[in-house]
Design a protein that fits this description.
The complex is a heterodimer of chains A (164) and B (468). In chain A, helix 3 packs across helix 4, helix 8 packs across helix 9 and helix 9 packs across helix 10. Chain A has 164 residues and is mainly α. Chain A folds into 2 domains: 92 residues, no CATH class; 71 residues, Winged helix-like DNA-binding domain superfamily/Winged helix DNA-binding domain (Arc Repressor Mutant, subunit A, Orthogonal Bundle). Chain B has 4 helices and 32 strands. In chain B, 56% of the residues are buried. Chain B is mostly beta strands. The termini of chain B are far apart. Chain B has one domain: Neuraminidase. A 6-stranded antiparallel beta sheet of chain B has the order 2-1-25-24-21-20. A 4-stranded antiparallel beta sheet of chain B has the order 3-32-31-30, with no helix packed on it. The radius of gyration of chain B is 22 Å and the shape is globular. Classes of the chains: A mainly alpha (164), B mainly beta (468). Chains A and B meet through helix 1, helix 2, helix 3, helix 4 and helix 5 of A and helix 1 and helix 2 of B.
Chain lengths: 164, 468
Amino acid sequence: MVGAEAIRAGAASLDEAFRLHQPRLVRRLALVVGDAEEAKDLAQRTFVRAAERWPLPPDQDVASWLSVVGLRLALNERRRRKVWGFASVKETDATWAIQVDPDLWHALATLDRRTRAALVLTVLDGYTQEEVAGALGVARGTVASWLSRARDRLQPILEENPDD
Amino acid sequence: MTDNYESRLRARLGALEGAVPVSSEAIRAGETIHRGTRVRSALPVGSLVAAGLVVMVVVGLVPRLAPAGAGASPSALGAVTPGVSSSVAATSTATPGPSASNAAASPSASLVLASPMAPVRPSSISKIDWKTVPMPDGVTVDTTTGNITAAAQPMVAGFGGNLVMLAMAGVYSLDLTTDKWTRLAGPEAFGGYVPLSGLIDDGRGGLMAWGSEGIFGSRDGRTWQKTLPTVPNVNEIEFLTVTPTGYLAVGNPPGQSAVAFTSADGTLWTRRNLPDATNWDAYQAFVWNGKLAIDAVWANPDGQQLIPGQVPVIPTRVWLSSDGTSWETRSVLTGFLLPRFVSLGDVTVAYEGMHDPTIDGRPILGLSKSPVSSTNLTDWHRVTVTPATGFTSGVDDIEPLGSELMAAQPDGSVLTSADGVSWKLQSSSGPSGWLQDGLLSPVGDLLVDTTVKLPSGKPALLIVTPVE
């Protein structure tokens, strides 16, 4: 079963996957890309990719697949995003973050996307550095370097407000 | 301490994550809003789709989507007679980067009619030959994300009469006579794996590769040395090219100006500051007429409002240098979202490097499909997309093919040109769909696409050969 047939047959479970995973995926991606609107769009694109490949192999963890593809898409956006910002949709509006934790948000903003992706995958998702390296297609040492850089930036923030 | 750090960070990241506003708009299985689009160098097509739709809904333009190219703003592109090449010019010179507001509105950023063009040199390529070569076992091609790195799409270059390929699984050499592959090195040659985004013949019997971790060099394809380590705040080398005096690389430090690096030997690199580079993103390095050239896109820090169906008037600049030390701003070209440049002698052709996002096959923004050419990087000459010019479905990629240029169109048809002005539609088209996910890479006198698949599903190289 391939192509459209597979997509139609798997539609119900894909819908279910969307309901289960889309909110979490958007939240994770927003931490990485720094923008909720872009995160929603990336999540949408991730599910389009999923639909094209649905059903995923039985041994494939759907949440992991979505996270990895979503993060790869996010990293692929890279710096070009700033070239084509869209004032009309307020793509840089991050009041949701600034209201909650402005210090951490601004510190995260000094890190590049790859570092934020590695941070999210390790700290929130519990992946090892080796697993993150495999997911993002870089050497483990590279991930370690990113996380070390992140720690240099974030630790002072965390120590300033240890109760937060 | 580690536990404290991680637990505090986890808690605060979790709080941030919980604050992200999440809507629950539905997705339909099999939705194809992005099918058929391809992005060069990681452009935010999805974002364009989303933003474009929002704007279109607001202004009520959805039912009136114009065909690609037809929606281009006449004021931005100049008057053009269908079927006939026209001449346009970009305003030149070293004007400071435009402000956020005038980037879109400044009259000086528009193309205008210009002087007559150089004499036409017709294409002498009579035929295009194609062949596919299966990838070696273990090499994968991942077009899921559209990443333009070796992690997704293998990179190729000429090397010692063979073709060398850098893939996730390692470095391979292809004997072009026997189509036999030899594995030269594994990922450990780069310390595990490095997400390289380009590979070239260094012109001195070696290879150079570049990407987010700097520049690597190799004399044999087996052992690699990092020659330009990651520079603090220069996260990524965007492009590298061989020049008459050595090498030219460009990068974009976050929050800083575009920078260039030059090297005479590929080992010792010197950072070069570019004039008036604030808020410009260097995109490509190339050689024009024996000079070093860098093109850069205006990176509007305040965002840029796009109008569906109208080509954005956002400038692209070319920096030019004879020695790599002193640079001049040669021209400001508008009318494209993200032009790609390809140079052949004194001819430079620029074309839209980004696919117009589509919904059900309809373009959203109406990006220009027309290439422009110039012999002085100031006056630009545009070819229209009409059956008369052979450009029927727009430009997908333009690369040097032997002594000429080859333009590939999304429908698989190709055109060749010796002057960038007159184009010859070749009778031989590529395999169906061959360009949908691919990029062409010049390798000597050949062009190679590393993203095609055989009917069996096995990934393969597509090798394009000109016949004169």
